[in-house]
């Protein structure tokens, strides 16, 4: 039970280092606008010239990155999210004060834009890590977002809401099983490139 | 000795799944132009609507992604590279034919643009992984590109040439020590955001 790990300040702080890339000359205003529309008061957040880091309760981390992506996507431009989610990095404690927040989410991201994603799960120091990755694929299949494997990643297709729900569920499940967990994810919407023809549910399930 | 692993088709194939993001309305032509200027004949390469995957000898993989980034950067636009390098993924063999290529590099990337990078090393199923990450930081310090640690990543600053040389060296060294290795890297150039004030060598070394 993750909740037991949070008792008495024993932190199980999660985080995400990510960037939003609007492929547009207006990228600065699209990013600024998305940040302005997102309530980040329950997370620690710091932006530098390469990326942004958000830290806090797992639920709040996913709430914030989902909202920022969804608001940027609402610009209609081709927008990409690229990030690394992490929990249990040894010695990782700054920002612990945000763990005293509750799990009530502050954001209501706009209706989910059609999104393509590629994600990979990396449980560290875990001999059974390949089994955990297989479990994540099964979870994505049961949520209806899994649409195939590519080298080094699994693909998800669906609304931004469905994709982020899948990412959060597979991350949360794996984080219950291993101390240090990393997950990379790249999400793309409004791309001018055609999506690959999606396999039928049966074909996708067989992969 | 990695070379021994390559004898007789026993593959030690490396790969990189990456995307180039020119933050510009001209992103399509910048990407197409960079691809056109890069010789990719010694690697297996496949692009979908989310990312591109390159596979082959480690030297050729780094040669190709470096060249694509450098050519895109030469556009003068704010360009970002985001990618995951991988070697030793179990069951990972398609594209093995490219392992019969030699290590002679085919590209001469344009003079390196000033680049900021954040990278992270993930040795899988390796109890000593934190020590390997510390070794990578030491290697980056000795190459003069390390400029500090941030949550979940280490920062590099330098020319694109210096940054890619650092990434390749730390990846190659770690790949000699562990079977399955992953490294994420985000590189940014021509950003309108100011770089953080870089610490002196002494301060950076002390981190």
Automatic annotation (TrEMBL), chains A, B:
Domain Thiamin/hydroxymethyl pyrimidine-binding YkoF putative: 13-92, 115-193
Matches recorded under Gene3D superfamilies: 3.30.70.930
A Pfam family recorded for this sequence: Ykof
GO MF entries: thiamine binding
Protein origin, superkingdom: Bacteria
Binding site for thiamine: 20, 52
Entry protein name: HMP/thiamine-binding protein YkoF
Source lineage: Bacteria, Bacillati, Bacillota, Bacilli, Bacillales
Gene: ykoF
């Amino acid at each position: 039970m993750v909740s037991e790990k949070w008792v008495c300040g024993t932190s199980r702080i999660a985080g995400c280092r990510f960037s939003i890339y609007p492929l547009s000359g207006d990228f600065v205003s699209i990013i600024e606008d998305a940040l302005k529309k997102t309530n980040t008061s329950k997370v620690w957040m710091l932006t530098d010239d390469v990326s942004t880091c958000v830290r806090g309760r797992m639920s709040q981390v996913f709430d914030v990155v989902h909202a920022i992506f969804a608001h940027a996507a609402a610009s209609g431009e081709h927008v990409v999210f690229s990030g690394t989610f992490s929990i249990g990095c040894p010695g990782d404690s700054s920002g612990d004060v945000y763990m005293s927040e509750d799990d009530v989410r502050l954001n209501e991201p706009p209706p989910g834009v059609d999104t393509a994603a590629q994600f990979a799960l990396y449980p560290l120091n875990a001999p059974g890590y390949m089994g955990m990755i297989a479990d994540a694929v099964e979870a994505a299949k049961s949520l209806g977002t899994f649409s195939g494997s590519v080298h080094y990643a699994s693909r998800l297709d669906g609304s931004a809401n469905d994709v982020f729900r899948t990412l959060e569920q597979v991350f949360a499940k794996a984080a219950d099983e291993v101390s240090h967990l990393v997950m990379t994810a790249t999400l793309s919407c409004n791309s001018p490139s055609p999506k690959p023809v999606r396999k039928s549910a049966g074909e996708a399930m067989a992969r």
